[in-house]
């Protein structure tokens, strides 16, 4: 009996540990989405609250079709009205004889309004179709808000019962929300900044993301090549699953070969192939890896004091484009980036002085939109890095990244033993010949022609 009790205790500890671990991102340890409720006024049967959603994740945004926030009421509360958002269902309001509430469901689900709604339905930071930027890419766009009037609720700080069982779809699975917690009331400054006011009551809810909850399989993969080796290391076969569906918020809901088309087929060129489906099902180009997105890292040139790498991102999903995409790379030489061409670059410092992680994203109005699969479904850039004599080498795959994330999801890397190796005959000294440059260009040309 004692052995059985100890085994159950160990299993419980492991379950709790794993549940916490899967929601922890080592490259963004403090990343989360915080939902804050500020009670701004009391009403005869409840309160009016401003609900603000802040995305504190450095490189993970909420893409179209946007967020959905849900919760369970503690008592029999209703939503009399809402500004800047709407409930997806009204529910049964038949017991109300006079004014009809906006939503009577015990478990309401709230979505953002679309851009361009009438001004009397808008509020600050609303109406973006639920799209929320990553904090590291666009802090001003990393929030969303709406105002809700709650009835049949408490009318004082002591009688208000906090909602519970919060859920967040962003836009698909992956987020887990903790319980609502009362915090010190939010303080506001008047427009002239000479007077402070504060909310009557404030509580917050913290939601964290787990890639394991979002998708059974990876949603991107990585391939490698180099100027010093003619071998192109492709994405691993079935890197994102073959013959198995996998769901993901942005719409990669079926990664199986049954939902793929050949890139040169008539269907791939037919009208309407890029039209998204209501269920978010993907239509992928048939490839050995069956990933919606591939990231290719090419070690391009070697100079005396610098070296250059080329990054190419290719979309294989005919039904999805990626607005404000992000790419995160971990590499020891990112502590000495000299220049990035065609992409924006921002160092990420999750652990203070360790500067080996950086975020790439597109230039606004130039390449911040990764188009659907096809001739325009790719973006690329080059990175120039200064060498550190103490660490720089081309041997043992050092020139390739340790991790790659696309849109906040970690990509499947090739097996380490397949990395392009440095031929024993190749000189370790700097190579500046035009032959090396020509070979690199030829490799990239082949890469763009082969999925």
From TrEMBL:
The COBRA C-terminal domain covers which part of the protein?
Answer: 219-420
Signal peptide interval:
1-23
Q: Any stretches that span the bilayer, and where are they?
A: 431-450
Question: Does the record bear Coiled coil in its keywords?
Answer: no
GO cellular component labels: plasma membrane
Keywords (A to Z) from UniProt? Glycoprotein, Membrane, Signal, Transmembrane, Transmembrane helix
Domain of life of the native organism = Eukaryota
**Biological process per Gene Ontology, one example term:** cellulose microfibril organization
Entry's Pfam families? COB_C, COBRA
The UniProt entry's sequence similarity note says: Belongs to the COBRA family.
What PANTHER family does UniProt report for this protein, alphabetically?
COBRA-LIKE PROTEIN 5, PROTEIN COBRA
What name has this protein been given in UniProt?
COBRA-like protein
Originating species: Bambusa oldhamii
């Amino acid at each position: 009996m004692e052995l059985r009790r100890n085994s159950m205790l160990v299993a419980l500890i492991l379950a709790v540990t794993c549940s916490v671990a899967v929601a922890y991102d080592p490259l963004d340890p403090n990343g989360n989405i915080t939902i804050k409720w500020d009670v701004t006024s009391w009403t005869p049967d409840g309160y009016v609250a401003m609900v603000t959603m802040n995305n504190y994740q450095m490189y993970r945004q909420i893409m179209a079709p946007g967020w959905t926030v849900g919760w369970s009421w503690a008592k029999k509360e209703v939503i009399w009205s809402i500004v800047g958002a709407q409930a997806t269902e009204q529910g049964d309001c038949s017991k109300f004889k006079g004014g009809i509430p906006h939503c009577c469901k015990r478990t309401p689900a709230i979505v953002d309004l679309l851009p361009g709604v009438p001004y009397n339905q808008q509020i600050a930071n609303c109406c973006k179709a639920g799209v929320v930027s990553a904090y590291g890419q666009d802090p001003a766009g990393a929030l969303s808000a709406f105002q809700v009037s709650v009835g049949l609720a408490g009318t004082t700080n002591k009688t208000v019962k906090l909602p519970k069982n919060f859920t967040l779809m962003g836009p698909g699975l992956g987020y887990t929300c903790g319980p609502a917690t009362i915090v010190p009331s939010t303080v506001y400054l008047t427009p002239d900044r000479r007077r402070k006011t504060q909310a009557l009551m404030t509580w917050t809810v913290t939601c964290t993301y787990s890639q394991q909850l979002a998708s059974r399989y990876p949603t991107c993969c990585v391939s490698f090549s180099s100027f010093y080796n003619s071998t192109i290391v492709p994405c691993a076969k079935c890197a994102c699953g073959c013959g198995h569906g996998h769901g993901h918020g942005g719409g990669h809901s079926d990664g199986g070969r049954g939902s793929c088309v050949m890139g040169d087929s008539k269907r791939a060129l037919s009208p309407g192939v890029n039209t998204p489906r209501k269920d978010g099902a993907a239509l992928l180009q048939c490839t050995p890896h069956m990933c919606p997105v591939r990231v290719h890292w090419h070690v391009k040139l070697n100079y005396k004091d610098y070296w250059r790498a080329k990054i190419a991102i290719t979309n294989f999903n005919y039904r999805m484009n990626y607005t404000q995409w992000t790419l995160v790379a971990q590499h020891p030489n990112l502590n000495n980036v000299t220049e990035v061409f065609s992409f924006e670059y921002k160092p990420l410092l999750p652990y203070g002085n360790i500067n080996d992680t950086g975020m790439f994203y597109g230039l606004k109005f130039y390449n911040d939109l990764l188009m659907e699969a096809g001739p325009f479904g790719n973006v690329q850039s080059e990175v120039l890095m200064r060498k550190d004599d103490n660490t720089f080498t081309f041997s043992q795959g050092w020139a390739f990244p340790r991790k790659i994330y696309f849109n906040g999801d970690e990509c499947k890397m090739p097996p380490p033993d397949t990395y392009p190796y440095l031929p024993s005959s190749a000189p370790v000294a700097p190579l500046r010949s035009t032959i090396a440059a020509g070979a690199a260009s030829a490799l990239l040309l082949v890469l763009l022609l082969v999925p």
